[in-house]
Amino acid sequence: MPPASSADWRHRQQQVVRATQLAWAAYARDALGCDEYMPLSHRGRNFTHLGIGYLAADALDTLWLMGLRAEYAQARGFLAHQVTFDQRGAVSLFETTIRVLGGLLSAYHWSG
User: Fold this and answer.
1) 66 touches 76 (CB < 8 A)
2) How many Å apart are CA 1 and CA 75, to the nearest integer?
3) Residue 77: enclosing H or E segment and its boundaries?
4) What residues contact 4, with CB distance under 8 A and at least 6 apart?
5) 46-96 pLDDT per residue, tens
6) Collapsing DSSP states into helix, strand and coil, what is residue 93?
C-alpha cells in the first residue's frame, strides 16, 4: 500500500475534527457539564452530586488544538463559572488528576 498523500492526511484530519464537533455538540446539547456522557441515552451523569466537569476539562486541550474555538470557549466558560470543588463526595484521585488537572494544565499551556 502506498503512503498517504498530504491531501489524504488533510481529509482524514478534517474528518476527525468534524467527528469531534459532532460529539461535542451532542454532549453540549444533552449533558453539558456532566462528568460522563452516555450518547445512546442522550444523558449525562456526575460522579459527585454537582459534578466537577471531568469531560469538559478533559476535552479542553483537544478542542483548542483542533481549532474548535467556540467549543473551547463553551467548555472553558462552564469550568470557570459553574464548577465548584467545594462539595462532598468520593472521587478517584487518579481520574481527577489526569482528567481535570491534566486538562486544565494542558489547555493553559497551549492557549497561552
Assistant:
1) no
2) 40
3) helix 69-82
4) 12
5) 998 889 999 999 999 999 999 999 999 999 999 999 998 888 888 889 999
6) helix
